[in-house]
Amino acid sequence: MNKNRRAACVDNGERPRRLTPGEAAVVIIVVTLAAVLALAGQPLLTVVELLVGTGLVTAHLAGAQHRQAPVRC
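Below the sequence we write its predicted structure tokens.
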């Protein structure tokens, strides 16, 4: 098989987007809050629920801003 062959569904034209300072601050605050809760004795499941919940909200908001047609191979 030819090693120089590329998949047709790969888009190399766009560079990854960097976090804005506001987005980076939110990430730092959420991770710090999770660490403080864990060190304060909160159950691990509570800390994981916090992280999963914020991740789901973030993914939903990011998806609303960057709606694109899905790439089909």
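Residues 44-65 form the longest helix (22 residues).
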